[in-house]
Amino acid sequence: AVVTCVPLLCFARVTHGMPDPGQRDLLMLEEAFMQTGGRVALTETEQKLDAHLHQLKEKEMSAALFPPAMHFFKAKPLIQRSPIFRLLQKMPKAALHIHSSALVSVEWLVKNVTYRPHCYICFTWDNSVRFLFSDRQPFPRWDCFYWQLLETLRAKLGDPTGFDNLIQRLTLFTEDPDGEYPNQDVVWQKFEKAFIAAAGLITHAPVLRDYLYRGLVELMLDNVMYLELRSGLSRTYELDGTIHEKVWSLKTFQEVTKRFMSDHPDFLGARIIISVNALSVSEVKAAIKEAIQLQKDFPDVVAGFDMVGREDSGRTLWYFREALSLPADLSVTLPYFFHAGETDEGTDVDQNILDALLFNTTRIGHGYALAHHPLAKAISRKRDVAVELCPISNQVLKLVSDLRNHPAAVLMSEGHPMVISSDDPSLFGTTGLSYDFYEAFTGIGGLKANLGTLKELAVNSIYSSLPAHLKDTGYAMWQNKWNVFVLDHL
Ligand SMILES: *[C@@H]1O[C@H](CO)[C@@H](O)[C@H](O)[C@H]1NC(C)=O
Ligand SMILES: *[C@@H]1O[C@H](CO)[C@@H](O)[C@H](O)[C@H]1NC(C)=O
Ligand SMILES: [Zn+2]
Questions:
Q1: What is the number of structural domains in the chain?
Q2: Which phi and psi angles does 336 have, rounded to 5°?
Q3: How far are the Cα atoms of 107, 222, 278 from residue 262, in angstroms, in the given order?
Q4: What does the alpha-carbon distance between residue 107 and residue 83 come to, in Å, rounded to a whole number?
Q5: Looking at residues 415-428, what average pLDDT do you find?
Q6: Atom 4 (ligand 2): residue with closest C-alpha?
């Protein structure tokens, strides 16, 4: 038999069958030391805020309704009333896992973009919608037989806001998430439809420019200081049908970011992770070659490369190995930021985490399955490859219902490298990162997650993302904002 012995336990003094309370305290301290933020030394002021936060947490965790235990669509109004949530909104942080087509709130798309002139709408056979800006009546297409000018339609209806319920077609929100989305297939179908519906609005060139700016505004309102945006860099179109190639989108992103930074000097910047939703090895090869070139031409904007789409129905990373080894074969660096392990199925795609690490991924998108892979876990920890935890996405897309049972609870209690993000905010009805921070901090972290946890998560997001030449200034700016945040909340 193997004799294992935790040193502290071996020496525990036992009197009359009662474990030594002093020894117990030591063990608890030692364990608290291991969690995310456990080794962060808090200043005196930070300790005061931490004590206050602990009280707020105890109160919310003992209330009859605890938001992380509920579906987010029902929990959202409760979270909005939470003083912890309002505090998290003020905390300086960075967003490292957001997709460009779901960056901006749908309210803005409907209230601003669909009210612009020349906006045509079409209702499809499968109960979805398409939009198109055009200076003449658009031709029928395979998915859209009859285009109507939205302005005329609204005027006919008499009620000028009558079409604002379009919002429902562009998000996953519903009053009855459990009834409407009985399984992962149904919710993913709606998810993909919503992306297609929004595409006609966002890929209109003048809209894309405003959309990106508005996206940064919404993040800034949540005190997000830096963004890494996953984007497929769509082609865009003008009113007269002119098409701009992908590089136009990248230039526009660069321009908008510059303008935003000069309007908001305390914003650190934004970069793109080029993300393809590809089916064949040759498509991925082409995409990687293109990404290598774009990174060479726009080194400040292109952070790296990722593959997106539903893992459970797609190919494994290993299937694309020939394409993914191209940069190494060509002796160029193209950092990878793979989505991996966004699954609960235990099938082949489960191995994506290990393969992502073999391809030297910089971070792991989701890594929901990481807790089942001790070796991959050890490697990612050793290399400081952070998991991008997106709790609300995992819940809405039905990997977990009660967020207290999220496997990242294990990762947090072990201090695994981690950042928090929001994946597809517009589709889930969130903005910024604070809703996800709330769920991670109260639901996944539990009572023991403290201000040190928040500080480490926020520092991770700033420190693990910025390019080398921005790290020190970026960190210093974050630290200043953090100090103000702590003082403001005492
Ligand atoms: C839409 O947004 C643009 C750019 O932010 C702004 O200039 C315009 O006034 C907005 N229009 C409406 C109708 O809200
Ligand atoms: C990953 O990194 C290691 C060590 O730097 C290197 O030897 C290897 O070629 C890299 N693999 C790929 C696929 O880039
Ligand atoms: Zn994602």
A1: 2
A2: -100, 145
A3: 26, 19, 36
A4: 25
A5: 97
A6: 360
Tokens of 137: 């009546």
pLDDT in tens, 184-208: 899 988 888 888 999 999 999 999 9
User: With a 6 A CB cut-off, is 473 part of the ligand 2 pocket?
Assistant: no
Out of 99, 366, 373, 406, the active site residue is 366
CA of 9 to the centre of ligand 3 (A): 43
φ and ψ of 52, to 5 deg: -65, -45
| The domain boundary residue, chosen from 134, 156, 188 | 188
Structural domain boundaries, residue 126: 108-188
251-286 per-position pLDDT tens digit: 999 999 999 999 999 999 999 999 998 779 999 999
The percent of the chain in helix, strand and coil, each rounded to the nearest 5, is: 55, 15, 30
Which phi and psi angles does 5 have, rounded to 5°? -155, 115
Pocket test of ligand 1: the residue of 104, 201, 210 to mutate, having most ligand atoms within 8 Å of its CB, is 210
Domain for residue 44, yes or no? no
93 plus 238 within the same structural domain: yes
Given pLDDT bands bounded at 50, 70 and 90, which one contains residue 1? very low
Q: CATH number of the domain at 326, please.
A: 3.20.20.140
Q: Which atom of ligand 2 is nearest to the CA of 359?
A: 13
Distance of CA 397 to the CA centre of its chain: 13
CA distance from start to end of the chain: 54
Give domain status of residue 52, yes or no: no
Tell me, using a 6 A CB cutoff, whether residue 348 lines ligand 1: no
